[in-house]
Amino acid sequence: MEAFMLLVTDSRHDFEVLESLKSLPQTLEVHRLYGEYDMLLKVRVNDLEELSSLERELLNGGQILSIDTLVIAGE
What we know:
Alpha-Beta Plaits, single chain, 75 residues, four-stranded antiparallel beta sheet, alpha+beta, 2 helices
């Protein structure tokens, strides 16, 4: 399954966050944004459990402040 994750980051660490997101095996795309969210991450995971685990992992790093996740329907 695929999902989009809208991230709010600690702006002091944008470059580090961007590079670490690129290196995740689940990452399909990552883009910096201007506006309410700082980054858009598109991921591919096996199931909702893996998606939840990924969200927790990202939030526990301290450089990502919040995540809104949108699961892509129809897969």
